[in-house]
Design goal:
Glutaredoxin; single chain; two-stranded antiparallel ribbon; alpha+beta; 272 residues; globular
């Protein structure tokens, strides 16, 4: 039987958690609004020549993580983030767990730290925690956590349209949350905003970014019939394409009926 004395404590914990998240988002909204946010850079290429350090301590060019075949989900986070980064990465992991595809196979994930003081050890622990939560050991090579110099971080963030600001008093960064889906050649395809992501939307966005090189024939048909709606963050029916598909289906149905009603003599005459 539930102990009702525990309920107030539980509610207080929930309230404090909510207040922490709200406070961080509020700082993002109120402190330096011109410096924090997302600029849509869809169609522009990331600075692939920019060099970072991965969680193994290896210096690598960002372009080495784009193989020209698999799309990439790019996020900007940092290990000491008090709340928002953890929520976003946890939300991403939960969505990826619901997909049949695994990071490192049909797509990659790259997380760049916006904190230039973040250490290799911190990046390694962050990676270990999220790969473990993902529950697919083979994904370890498909999810890269990168640290870098202030210049490298600034160049990559600016190219991706990710604007953030350091708050000295709070000793934290004010920033927003978005997963940036990129094409296999490093061109930005689409932004998925927030800390929770619809698995179906991720799958279709990755299929779209890969220009149909991944995904099933049904995925390609869905992309023909549906278009991404930035207001809802999901794919919505594309009226014109649905009308075209309906018209084609109607014509084909009529053709089948007409052919079916031809007499045997007409079929014999029509045959070579």
């Amino acid at each position: 039987m539930m102990n009702f004395r525990v309920i107030p404590v539980f509610l207080v914990v929930c309230w404090l958690t909510t207040q922490s998240v709200t406070a961080q988002i509020a700082r993002t909204s109120l402190e330096g609004t011109t410096d924090v946010g997302i600029d849509d850079k869809s169609g522009e290429r990331l600075p692939l020549e920019t060099v970072f350090t991965d969680s193994n301590g290896q210096r690598i060019a960002l372009g080495s993580l784009f193989d020209g075949q698999r799309p990439v989900i790019l996020t900007f986070n940092y290990a000491d983030c008090p709340m928002l980064c953890k929520l976003q990465l946890t939300g991403l992991v939960e969505s990826l767990k619901q997909m049949e595809w695994t990071a490192g196979e049909k797509f990659r994930v790259v997380s760049i730290s916006i904190d230039p003081s973040e250490t290799i050890q911190q990046a390694s622990i962050t990676k270990q925690n999220h790969v473990q939560a993902y529950g697919r050991a083979q994904s370890a090579g498909g999810w890269s956590f990168l640290t870098g110099t202030p210049e490298a971080i600034s160049i990559a963030a600016a190219a991706a349209g990710f604007r953030y600001k350091y708050l000295p008093k709070q000793r934290e960064f004010s920033h927003t949350a978005a997963a940036i889906v990129c094409m296999p050649d490093g061109v930005i395809s689409r932004y998925l905003y927030g800390v929770q992501f619809d698995p179906e939307t991720i799958r279709l966005t990755l299929t779209e970014a890969a220009d149909g090189q991944i995904g099933s024939p049904m995925d390609k048909l869905l992309l023909f019939c549906f278009r991404y709606d930035s207001a809802t963050g999901k794919y919505a029916p594309a009226a014109w394409n649905l009308m075209r598909l309906a018209a084609i289906s109607t014509i084909l149905a009529i053709a089948v009926v007409v052919i079916g009603f031809r007499t045997p003599w007409e079929r014999k005459v029509a045959s070579p």
